[in-house]
Amino acid sequence: MFFAQMLDHEYTTKTVFRENFFQDWREEMTHEERSLIQVLDKCDFGEIHAMHKAKVEVRKNMSKEEKLALKEANQKIVDEYGFCMLDHHKERIGNFKIEPPGLFRGRGEHPKQGMLKKRIQPEDVIINCSKEACVPLPPAGHRWKEVRHDNTVTWLASWTENIQGSIKYIMLNANSKLKGEKDWEKYEVARKLKTCVESIRNQYLLDLKSKEMVTRQRAVALYFIDKLALRAGNEKEEGETADTVGCCSLRVEHITLHEQLDGSDCVVEFDFLGKDSIRYYNKVPVIKKVFKNLKLFLENKEPGDDLFDRLNTGLMNKHLSSLMPGLTAKVFRTYNASIVLQEQLKELTNKSDNEVEKLLSYNRANRAVAILCNHQRALPKTFEQSMANLQAKIDARKEKLALVKTELKQVKKEAKTKGSPDPKLQVLVERKKGAVQRCEEQLLKMEVQATDKEENKQVALGTSKLNYLDPRISVAWSKNMEVPVEKIYNKSQRDKFAWAIDMTELDFEF
DNA sequence: CAGGACACTTAGCACATCCTTG
DNA sequence: CAAGGATGTGCTAAGTGTCCTG
User: Fold this and answer.
1) Which CATH number fits domain A375-501: 1.10.150.130, 3.40.50.300, 3.30.1060.10, 1.10.132.10?
2) Is the pLDDT of residue A419 over 70?
3) N or C end of chain A, less CB within 10 A?
4) Which nucleotide is closest to the Cα of A106 by its C1'?
């Protein structure tokens, strides 16, 4: 069933996926099945696939009443299981449902893709609640793996997943007090970096000339982390996950040095797969000292060797925490993202702009951050079509505008030739004027929409908005520009950032 | 100090739902 | 009111970073 359901997906054609799936499937077979079913390619899943598609179709064609009943049933489940009490406050739980079984599909070329992700039993689950709490009952005939009362952690339940052996957690929703406070702390640390970033930069520039190889490598890596907002790059276990890297785990094969490129000196060309196997490709002019060091680090190395062979994230973070309490590599990403947003908003928006223009500027500032952080998305499947549709609408609106303008002219002319003022004609003139103005506004809105859409086709704004941009910058901007906060944050974003919406003053500076 | 366990944040995609438009 | 595109939400994988152990 798991395999048959996925047949429309490209990854069921991948060798690794098929081999992993078949191996795990055979584990689940009886003796007889195992001797009968030996080659995946000889299996015909067509019938099961068709059955699944039919089921999906039935679901899609449910009547309004059936859909409503289903929705209400789901809501009941949320009401009953979707909340918990924390410090006497009722809080929404982020993910209260156990992950269902299925075939594992990692991102990128994952060596474990296709493996069977097993069903979690109550016997696998640890419950974490307070001693006084009434412990949720396990399903009939079952018991929990453990019930503990650890108030030093935030999770409510956990289990160990069978693909990587990692622990999965049930935790609170982002709009909870607990998560909000941690979010606020994160941005306060980033703001503290603002006060000492200059001296840290001076320090790593000096360190580029250090006699110690480790120190030089650390300085170059920090230069990248600061300038390019690269992730730290922890080591990963080979063969357990897709081959991806961050700053400290860059290999020789991931960079190319150009003494000159496109009219710039000392250019580093980056080309590697980062988190989620998203490609990072960038050509960056760097200062001479960095360039020279890189040449040195590359000497006598193979493409697969570590660029920073003396360095790892542990060393980097130990150094950073000595420069400022709480400072780690990822703080630079938060800091640079928020600073860029603040600067771009200042540069791009004018108080005299209309709301549509202001929002385009906001999106552009957001976009500058997303590009810095390399937050990409797949080109939407319907992009070309919907762009063409929008263009057609724009053209139609332009024609309409031209028409309304000539009509206005005519009415004006009529009013003039008549000599004596005719109240009826005057009203008509005013009406046409209004129509022209409305038409112009609509046209502008559409054109702005088209620009925004085009610039944004492969950029994901959500990730930075949710995780990197101090919401107080956006809230202060919205107040200063008199743009309602609803225009930049939707409902759940407003819930998540309620702390910032409540407390931010007009003059907030990140 | 390496390596693993653990806890938490960050990430993109698929699907659900909402909204607009003809 | 249906179609279809836009927007929002759920899901869960994939990172970061700390702590503990030997």
Assistant:
1) 1.10.132.10
2) no
3) N
4) C13
